[in-house]
Amino acid sequence: MKKLLDITNLSISYGNKPTVKGVSLRVDEGEIHCLVGGTGSGKSTILHAIAGISSKAVHITAGTIVFDNTDLLALDEKKRRQLLGSRIALVFQNPESYFDSLMTVGDQFVEFLQYRNPAMKKEICLEVSARALREMRLDDPERLLKLYPFELSGGMLQRSSIAMAMLTKPKLLLADEPTSALDIVTQAKILGELKVLNKNTGTAILMVTHNMKVAETLADTVSVMYSGKIVESGDTQTVLHYPSNDYTKELIRSMPTMEEARLIE
Amino acid sequence: MNDNILLETRELRQIYGKGRDRLEALKGVSVKVHSGESIGIIGLSGCGKSTLLRILAGLETPASGTVQFRGQTLDFDSRKSLRDYHRKVQMVFQNPMSTFSPYMTIQTYLLESLRSFGGLEGDGREQAVALLKHVELDETFLDRLPHQLSGGQLQRVVIARALALNPEVILLDEPTSALDILTQRAILELLSQIAKERNMSLIFVGHNSSVVRLLSHRVYVMETGRIVEELFSETMLQDAKEPYTRQFFPENLKKVVYNY
After folding, report:
1. Domain end position, chosen among B117, B150, B166
2. A264 and B216: CB-CB below 8 Å?
3. B97 interfacial to chain A (CB closer than 8 Å)
4. From edge to edge, which strands make up the β-sheet containing A229-235?
5. What's this model's pTM, rounded to 2 decimal places?
6. Residue A77 — pLDDT band, cuts 50, 70, 90?
7. ipTM, two decimals
8. Which of A6, A17, A155, A260 has the fewest CB within 10 Å, making it most exposed?
């Protein structure tokens, strides 16, 4: 498999506090990799650093992030921006924060497309957008494009944000807990969409999640993060069934199952 | 378990909006909680489970139907009746951040209900310390502001406050869905321990059956304003007949994704 993303020895500080401590991570072309860990483990910080959207208080103190043979950290701001939103795309936990609440979904799709291609006519933009939404199995996309974000359910909004992210046919999709705010039934459907999208387009996915169950369902490979370090990584089935690290074992043990003893008599 | 019924609803109906926007959120919901028993309510977003919980909390008046606590019908028009009821039945919401004022210290927050029910002793600091102890937090939290606490710590504080009036029932609206797996486990264990020690009933609303069953004896499954199935938590995996119910089992995640 060809390397797509290669992170070596990455260290990141928030203010003076080290939050990522010498992390190395690799995602191959077309692969789905999950970064699993608890709140504050540093997993989202890494995702933001790849996307180049870290807050001002964040400093990358060591390491390299190589994407498709380009060292991202050596690029200037403008080149970085071009890459994000063309070959690297991003979806968040709360799709509400991805969309402007005062603009219709359609206008935001048009803006997204025209920003990259100013010559593209509005009708064409809307046509392209409707097709993208239909691919994410959203009914009546023409109607949906006329709606405001608050008129859509959480699941519909998340599908729309993925559809928008995929418009540029990125090679890598970064996903930050994309299903954690959704109920378990909608969660399953969104994960299904990501799987299909990965199969059909070959877009690699790097997903951050605290939920081992989500990783188990979707990922080819996983890395487990604890306190700024990757404590274990490998093939998903191997890590899940033969974990070697104590923290990984605890994460797996903590997943509620239908078979375990209940907590009240 | 005995036949002693602690809390019961009969044919609850709730309607929101009018004309084209009319939504029948509850279409005749009857549920029972025996004393010493905890129940779960499972359903999709919009099935009416949160409406049911708000009515059970006395925060919302149903269009018709009744709520009875120990055989006494709750009078939604009487402040006294509601007040007596609130003393017995307390609610914990999903998102701990949204229940706090950002400028209120943890101590003030913890003592709010005691203050309003006239149960405050002195400045209440000792009472607040005792409440924190129940949720395994120490005195140092009292003077902090909400943003200085993690999500799990905040949820512990919310639970501590719910305990202040010594309620007999605690209503939980997805209390752990905003938390990571390890924190979720810790909060579930804490709740089970508290329920056991105080012989309290929990009513736990959620969408993940593997979580809800941990803290319940029986589970009601809701779909578009109705109860569609009622199951014992212990055997729900084997007993569930409705395909709608089986969606909420974690194994469904794999099945849906693989068949996509």
Report:
1. B166
2. yes
3. no
4. A88-91, A172-176, A204-209, A32-37, A221-226, A229-235
5. 0.89
6. confident
7. 0.85
8. A17
